Every structure is written in C-alpha cells, then in structure tokens.
C-alpha cells in the first residue's frame, strides 16, 4: 500500500475532496480573469469605437476637473506615487526582509517572485500593444512609455493584493474585512489618479487590474500546490496563504505595556521638552547678540575652497540630513527593529526622538531668528533661520538614537559601525552646510546641544533598552511562543 493510500485511510476523502474543489475554483477564477483581460486587450487592439469613445470622454472630463486646481493635481500625484516603482519595490524588499527575519521564507519568496513577474509583464505588454497615451486639453502630468495596460494599476493590484494574502493571518478575524477594504481603496484610488492626471485611459486601468488579479491568482494557486507538496494543509484562501504564520507576523505579540504610567511619562517628556527649548533659546540668544569672530570666519574660509566638484559633493552630503533621507532611514529601521525584537519601546524611542527634534528645531529657530552667515549661500533663501541647524540636528538625533538601540541588542563586533556613523554622518553634514554658507559653527553647537539634551530626556523617561534582548534571544523566545500556541491548537 502506498503512502498516499495510508493517508486517505487515516483521514478519509474529505481533505482530498476539499483540495479538489478549491483547485477547480482557483482555476475557474484564473481563467475568468485571464479571459476578461484577453477580451479587453482585443477591444483595445482593434480600436472598438464604443470603448474609444468612453475612454476619450472620461479622460477629457477628469482632465477639466483636475487641471482647475494645483492642489488637486498635487494630491493626485501624491496618491499615485504609492503605486509607482520607486515606492513599491522598496516596500516589497522591506516586507520580504521582515518575513525572512521572522522565519517565514516561503511567503518572502512568494512576494519577490510575484512582484518580479508583475515588473516583467507591464513593459512587455506595453511594447507589444504600443498604445499611445491620452492627449488632453491641459496636460498636468507626464509618463514615459506606452499606455496599455497601466503599470500603476497592475503593480498596485499585485503588490497590495499579495500583501493582503501574506499578512492576513496576522490580522484578527473581525478586522480582516477592514484590512481587505483598505487595500482595495488604495488600489482603486491609485487607478483613479492615473485617469484623472491624463496619463491613462479607463481601459488601461481596467486592463492593469484584470491582469494583476490574474497574475495574483496564478501565483497564489502555485503557492498552495507548493504547500501541499511540502506536506502542509491547504485551508481556504480567506485565511491567507500561510495561516500558521499569524503568530510570527504579529508586530509585538508578547510585549507588555510599552510605557508604564503613560500620562506621568508624557508629562515628564513635556517638561523635558520645555527645558531643552529654554536651553536652546538661551544659547541662541547669546550667540546672536555676541557673535564670536570665528563664527563668520570659518564658513568664509571654507568658501575659499569652492570648486564645482566640491559644490556637487557638498550638495549630495547635505542631502543626508534633509527630511526625505531622515524619513527613509527611519521607515526602514523601525519595521526591522519590530521584526527583530518584537518590542515597540525602541521604535517609540526613535519616533519621539525625531518628533522632538523637529519641533524643538522649528520653535527654537523661530524664537531666536538668527540670520544666515553673510557670505554667498549656495542653497538660496531658506524658510527657517540659522540657529540651530535642522539638517545637523536631525542627522545627529537619528544616528545617535539608532546607535543607542543597536549597541544594547547586538554583541557582534560590527555593531560599532553605528556609533561611528553617529559621529561621521553629522560631521559630514555639518561641514557641507557650512561650506555652502548656510550655517555658523555655533549653529552646529546648537544642534549638538539639542541632540544631547533631548536624547538624555528620552533616555531617562522611555528607557529604550529596558528588557532588551539580542536578536538571537528574541528569535528563540518567539519560536517557543509559536510552538506552545501550535500545541494548544493541536
């Protein structure tokens, strides 16, 4: 008797029947989406006049609506960016890394393979079909390449769809409809923006959605076959691709209260913020009224070394301290920290550090109102005053907070890279800002004072490394928790 026959004898035919029913249903869904896309493709390819009339009418009406307001155009472009490759590729890469950290390689592979497939399908079909983009009365946006299908519609359907399938087990059952609904709203909004901005027809967006659904269906079906061949059950797709991964995918399943006595801690943080602001104002008032001689001489001396090559290098280096760079690093570090240590406390520490830095810088700069150095300023007129330097303070706070968190949670020698970055990054940003004539040396001093005082306040109130675990300890504890839960279910 074969192994398969023994399994059937023990469990009966019910699991086999369920698998067959789901397989037939899955194939029917894939076929339906594929046929719908094929019909739409033929209608577009052979220029079916009713579809062309609908496309042109909707494109013209939405263009008249959107072009009447710069604010509307800006909002539409911001929403559309959530469906662009510049956003979705880093998102998929980050989520795949989180899955690997949590010990879930199969869903990580699914994300990567499905995403790569969508990235290949879009340009291939556009080149094959060769449909030109809409020509509207008032162009408010441009996009490269051909029009059918919409790459934003296809990519958003695939990316947000597979995120739902992979992370659905981590969502409580009563919240799952809201989770799916939120993803659907995002996909629909992205598709709408592509039509309203005049870079796609309605049929382009519909084609992208249908092709995305077909591709997700194919890869989800293949994933379920992979699970069955590996000896795992194949529950309904409404439970997600890998239902047993739920405990591993929850952000911080075993963490207690992030901050005991949160109202008291909030009051302590607020008092500390006021103290730091007062200190900054006192120093800023002093250096503005009694400017040291070297404060102007040093930026003027750096100016004597200016060359086109150094100008470009200083521009790039100063970008490490601007809002976009700081936000990107924070958005990468926080999810990775949650995945590694399953604790909100280090994330809260970093978030409060950056929020406090931003508010302290803006308030102190407005109160002190110090003029920029009286030399040529390569960045032109800035919206804030000179003291303290926002670029330098943000860079200092970010890398100092990360170094504090990492040093307590890793034991390997490479952890010393982060204290080194906490020194090198701010120094590089400071030299670039003074070279470009945007700050005095005492503005650098103000940024250092802000960083030291504010992080000290948060260190004693938040205690970011309380109950700190190494990555290995956290992984071992999570594995034990998962094992106990699976035993209880069994």
Automatic annotation (TrEMBL):
Q: Which SUPFAM superfamilies match?
A: Acid phosphatase/Vanadium-dependent haloperoxidase
Which UniProt keywords are listed?
Answer: Membrane, Transmembrane, Transmembrane helix
Q: Which InterPro entries match?
A: PAP2/HPO, PAP2/HPO_sf
Q: Which PANTHER family match?
A: AT30094P, SPHINGOSINE-1-PHOSPHATE PHOSPHOHYDROLASE
Q: Show where the Phosphatidic acid phosphatase type 2/haloperoxidase domain sits.
A: 108-220, 347-459
Please give the SMART domains that the UniProt record associates with this protein.
acidPPc
CDD domains, from UniProt?
PAP2_like_2
Q: Native species of this protein? A: Actinoplanes aureus
Q: Return the protein name.
A: Phosphatase PAP2 family protein
| Segments crossing the lipid bilayer | 24-48, 82-101, 108-129, 149-171, 178-199, 205-223, 269-288, 323-341, 348-368, 388-407, 414-432, 444-462
Q: Name one Pfam family in it.
A: PAP2
């Amino acid at each position: 008797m074969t192994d398969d026959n023994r399994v059937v004898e023990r469990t009966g035919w019910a699991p086999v029947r369920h698998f067959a029913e789901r397989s037939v249903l899955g194939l029917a869904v894939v076929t339906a989406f594929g046929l719908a896309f094929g019909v739409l493709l033929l209608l577009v390819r052979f220029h079916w006049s009713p579809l062309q009339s609908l496309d042109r009418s909707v494109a013209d009406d939405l263009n008249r609506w959107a072009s009447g307001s710069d604010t509307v155009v800006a909002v539409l472009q911001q929403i559309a960016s959530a469906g662009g490759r510049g956003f979705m590729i880093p998102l998929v890469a980050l989520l795949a890394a989180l899955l690997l950290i949590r010990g879930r390689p199969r869903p990580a592979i699914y994300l990567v393979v499905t995403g790569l497939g969508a990235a290949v399908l879009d340009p291939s079909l556009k080149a094959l079909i060769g449909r030109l983009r809409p020509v509207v009365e008032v162009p408010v946006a441009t996009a490269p390449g051909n029009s059918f299908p919409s790459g934003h519609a296809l990519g958003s359907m695939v990316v947000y769809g597979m995120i739902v399938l992979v992370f659905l087990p981590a969502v409580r059952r009563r919240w799952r409809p809201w989770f799916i609904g939120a993803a659907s709203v995002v996909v629909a909004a992205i598709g709408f923006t592509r039509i309203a901005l005049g870079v796609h027809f309605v049929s382009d967006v519909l084609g992208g959605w249908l092709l995305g659904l077909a591709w997700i269906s194919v890869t989800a079906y293949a994933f379920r076959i992979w699970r069955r061949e590996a000896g795992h059950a194949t529950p309904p797709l409404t439970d997600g691709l890998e239902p047993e991964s739920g405990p591993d995918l929850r952000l911080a399943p075993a963490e207690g209260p992030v901050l005991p006595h949160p109202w008291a801690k909030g009051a302590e943080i607020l008092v500390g913020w006021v103290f730091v602001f007062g200190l900054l104002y006192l120093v800023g008032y002093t250096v503005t009224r009694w400017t040291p001689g070297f404060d102007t001489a040093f930026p003027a001396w750096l100016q004597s070394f200016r060359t086109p090559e150094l100008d470009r290098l200083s521009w790039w280096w100063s970008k490490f301290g601007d809002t976009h760079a700081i936000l990107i690093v924070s958005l990468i570090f926080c999810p990775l920290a949650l995945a590694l240590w399953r604790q909100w406390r280090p994330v809260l520490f970093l978030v409060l550090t950056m929020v406090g830095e931003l508010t302290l810088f803006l308030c102190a700069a407005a109160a002190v109102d110090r003029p920029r150095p009286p030399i040529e300023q390569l960045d032109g007129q800035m919206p804030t005053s000179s003291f303290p330097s926002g670029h330098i303070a943000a860079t200092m706070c970010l890398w100092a907070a990360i170094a504090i968190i990492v040093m307590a949670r890793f034991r390997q020698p490479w952890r010393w890279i982060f204290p080194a970055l906490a020194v090198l990054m701010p120094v590089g940003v400071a030299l670039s800002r003074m070279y470009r004539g945007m700050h005095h040396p005492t503005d650098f001093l103000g940024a250092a004072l802000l960083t030291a005082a504010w992080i000290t306040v948060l260190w004693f109130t938040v205690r970011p490394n309380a109950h700190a675990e190494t990555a290995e300890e956290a992984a071992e504890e999570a594995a034990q928790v998962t094992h106990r839960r699976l035993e209880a279910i069994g």
